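[Protein data]
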Amino acid sequence: MQSDQYSYLPILMQLILAVGFVVGTIIISGKLGPKRTSETKDKNFECGIESVGNARIPFSVKYFLVAILFVLFDVEVIFLYPWAVNFKELGIEGMLKMIVFMALLLVGFFYIIKKKALDWE
């Protein structure tokens, strides 16, 4: 192997270790896990409250839209942090790029407001 290929050896070792751990855990839990089943043991349990009704109730698409928009704007805020840390080094060019970035963000935000995606009914 060439010297630059040796630099990938730790990654390969970590991959083998991770896959081996997962496979080993699955095999061991299958051999050592509980063997007896009963109706009470197989019942779904959440917070001590008995399950009532069907779990397949349809959700409004607005719920998922608000969740996706939250993640989208949250990720865009993450881009502001490195810019703020390196504000002086970026100079006027960095400021102009951030103005363009914020303008595009605001255009998207006003589009969402115009489409009433955040109005909860």
In short: The chain has a mean pLDDT of 84.
